[in-house]
Model the fold of this input.
Amino acid sequence: MNSMAIELLAPRYAIAWYPWAVQYFFLIAISYATLWLAAPALVFGKEKWLPTARLALLACLTTTLVAPVALLADLHQPLRFWHFYAFSTSSSWMSIGSLILPLYVVGVLVLSWLAWRPALQANRQADGLMGLTARWLSLGNGATPRALLVLVGLGTLVLSTGIMLYTGAELAIVKARPLWNTVWLPPMLVATGFITAAGLTLVLNRVSGMRDMATNTQMLKVLLGACVVAGLVAGSWFLDGINANVGSVAAALESVRESPSWRSTALWGGLTGVALFGAVLYLLTRPAARRPALFAWAWVLGLVAIHMGWMFRWVVLMDVQHVARNSAGFHHYGIPAGSSGLLGIVGTFGLWLAAVLVIDLLIPWRQASQGGSATDLPPDSPAPSDSPAHPDARSAAATTEGAPSHG
Done:
């Protein structure tokens, strides 16, 4: 009896999305989440949130400016972005996003200008480049209407929900990737976005010199709530998969069942989330007398939260593409050193840092207000002391005024 060997060959397709996509999803999530963190003070008038809003608005504007750069780079041919407008497709979430994103960017720019305008007016007589920038950007001495700031803020918040929806939906609709094709992915992206945004605000609170105690407390509470939501979403996704005979979640779990790297990734993600939740809960439940000393290390948890948010997007966007769609096993991906790999990742973060430094040099963002005019701003106060002997006094000073800006 003759035996015959039959060879089955399946093509290996190159990955469609490069690390630029990770950078875009990471930065745009920080952008819309920090916008919501700034909203309680700037839009809804809660004075206690004003120091937090100043830091959050700085993070929001800078990430909003840099995120579209990463998105254009991920198109591989950035100049073809106009195709979205010349050949729009109403059924495509990318096409819908191309309409929402420019409006959102303009909304964030206008909201930032309205919040910073009274401080710019107060610096019109300053010497050097900061004074020149203040005279150019303040556009006169008239008061900034509070109603206009609220209206722009509300409109931008609505647009931000569109950003949340389209960034999650453009992944969740891909039926060829079971690990993407689930209703649980969009809320998980939002939850981890708020984890990252709260973490970044904690870090900025430290490195900017503000070191506001109220901001630390508020962001730790946001971190705690976002970790709870992320845990519930992850648990629901897993239970949906093990209890369903069919469906994208069950197929997703089956596709990575035999992969040691995916098991280690799941273990890492779970342990990091639990550790972050436990550490935040520990800080928030300490006696009030011990909180100032303990909260001085809240920025470390902020770094962990940033790491968690970025790595989640790397796993979702890059590692999922390693799972072969038309053959067995997994495709290895090595990060190249060029602009489509490591250089692009470092360059994007470098561009964001440059935007932060330029704004810190030229814009008095520490005096961002809820509208009004330059005369409504409180007088400048000296920078808070770094001495640990007076943490309460330092916190009170930072809460009222914030650290003085450069120039």
Notes: The radius of gyration is 23 Å. Residues 282 and 294 are 10 Å apart (CA to CA). Confidence is low (pLDDT under 50) at residues 380-407.
